[in-house]
Amino acid sequence: MPRFPAGFELAEALTSAARQLHGTGSPHDAMNAAVQLAVRLLPEAEHAAISEIQRGRLRTLAWTDEVVRFDADSRNGSREPIPDRDRLWTTPVVRTDDSEADGGADALSGLGLRSALSLRLRADRRRLTVLTVYARKPQAFDDEATRIGRLFTAHVSLALDSATVREQLTEAMRTRDLIGQATGILMERLNIDAAGAFDSLVKASQRENVKLRDLARRIVDANSGASGRGVGER
């Protein structure tokens, strides 16, 4: 993906990036767009990744290249892709000027990455989400890159929040429709009214320790000829 053209005003570049981020359909799509845009937007950035840290475990959610894809089960799982990541719980930015400055002990130097700029996207008591850009040369990210990075991550955070809300609303509507279909099936099968059918569905969900949505899907699938048994078949 080419960088924004030379001389392209920062405000225009950020507006264009925000438009692309908000045009995505899901949080996953927004994160994939964000890492690609980060390489285009931040000066000297060559690779980018979004990682999530939860209960001390790190996994990469989006990446531009395999070299910056880290996961507990991957070949890079034993390495530390986010320098001083614990600091990001309390500060929004962590910058590494040269991973070889300590004699090459830093894990990034083993990947040929000398510079890194980590920017916090989200943080709560249990989970930290971070966007990190990397470069092969030392001291790649200066104060200007950090400023642009912070402005960009503000847009990314807003886009992620919007995409998450849209996804939750869509899922809620699907769940409502699914439960409505299951209730209608039980009304016809058991010859009861809507309240009785819904109550039967809730009780079966509790009895079987199955989420209401999943039980409703089972009933709808069974009614349409899929394998499985509905409440009324017990």
UniProtKB/TrEMBL annotation:
Keyword Protein transport: no
Residue ranges of the TM segments: none
Domain ANTAR: 159-220
Gene3D superfamilies listed in its UniProt record: 3.30.450.40, Winged helix-like DNA-binding domain superfamily/Winged helix DNA-binding domain
SMART domains according to UniProt: ANTAR, GAF
Keywords: Kinase, Transcription, Transcription regulation, Transferase
Leader sequence segment: none
Species the sequence originates in: Streptomyces plicatus
Protein's name in the database: ANTAR domain-containing protein
